[in-house]
Amino acid sequence: MHNTNVRVGRLITLYILFVIIGAVLLGRLFLLMSFPRAADAGDGRAVRVPRWQLDEEHFHLQLTSDARGWIEFQNGHRWQPRRLTEQRGGTSASPALVAPEIVGSIGLPDIWPSPDKVVAEQGRSGLEYAFDPILSGRRPGVTGHVVAAKVANQTAVRALPPTAFTLTPMRGKNVVTTIDESRQRLAETLLQKTGARHASIVSLSLRSDDIQVLASANHQASDALRAVAPGSIFKLVTAAAALETHTYSSNARFSCRGFVRLPHVDMHCWRVHGQLSLRQAIAESCDVTFATIGAQLGRIPMFVQAQRFGILETGIAPYDGKEVIVGADAGVVYKQSGSDLGLLANTAIGQEDVRMSPLQGAVLAAAIAKRGEHHRARLVKGFTDDSGRFTPLYPDARDTLGLRACSAFTASVLADGMWAAVHRREGTAYLLHPFPIAAKTGTAELPNGHVNAWLIGYQVHKGIPVSAFAICVADEPSWLAHKHLYQLAAAWFKSC
Question: Which residues, in sequence order, are bridge partners of residue 43?
């Protein structure tokens, strides 16, 4: 009922506006026809032109501003959207834009006019679509231009005022995002240089939970928000479930002979690890250890732990109960029903039906860096109006739906394993040991023989975690995916 009243109110306002404009124009025309006036004949001579000779004079109304607000980067620079234009057989968009898949596009609606719109164009995708009601102007800017008829001797009447009517716009609000423009541009440049078709870099501030970088190699649909098989980075969830349910202790020992045989399961590890602690199993990414843990845990603990880490959501804090990026993928742990050991073992190592987006991977790493405290990441800070007044999207400057994903002790065990993965020679990310990071690698095998190569973790400055990250190269041959992954990671951390 409230929405109906608002729409009716807007229609009445528009109707009154056009009645007023029409009355002004008709009144002016009446005055022109009733009273004589002097006009310039074009050669410096003044001539008297009867008003009735100006009855062909009319007004051209021109839209000077659609009054739409804009989307801004963190630094206040305007973030340009795609502007869709009608073309025969489809649409075209402006090239060379920063993350157009995130900021979105503006174009003509499928159905128009709409009682909610004063101009035709509206947000069609991305942030432009999600925040269209806020960005849309309440009144467009309009100018009425006088177009004079010619007098009997065909000379133009130039004494009439060029502008007879001006309507000032009532602009929509601007949307202020958390994206760091310079780092976003750098990330997109690095992704472009690799030549990868599907790759992404995500960076989150641990102090504010802000998404600073959400970069994708694919500008049609964001690779950073697309859920794909995560491989061994899901072992962090499995390890947390093992500790949180007290199924295993932190000093439990495991034995890897290069394979594990369970009923209906014959799984081979990528190498023989021998005797391992849980921390070592994380650092060296032992498939046997986590397949054994998954079979012991059962279906529910891994699902619940993934839910607590926010993997079953998009990872972005919503606005007014709605998704900020429509179409962003939520994660998946199980597509299949049942609790057979093969399903559990493969799920525990991130292979079977598990799906995560790079953003969800960065949110997972952030929770570990913050001692088990989970918050959804922020993409929008708030809004500004014409006066420059800022209204925060979240009153307390944080996502109010935070929760504890795991205990601080569990998070410390995971963090120890991630640090060892980078800074011990046996670790799977030892190639990156010059950088002050803690990380977990992942390789997901795909049916087409390709892999998804992953790296998630957090950066440390003076002993304090400062930002979480996720880097993913998807659907490439194994050697190429890992080559691109480490090239991206090294170049990214060098720039930090």
Answer: none
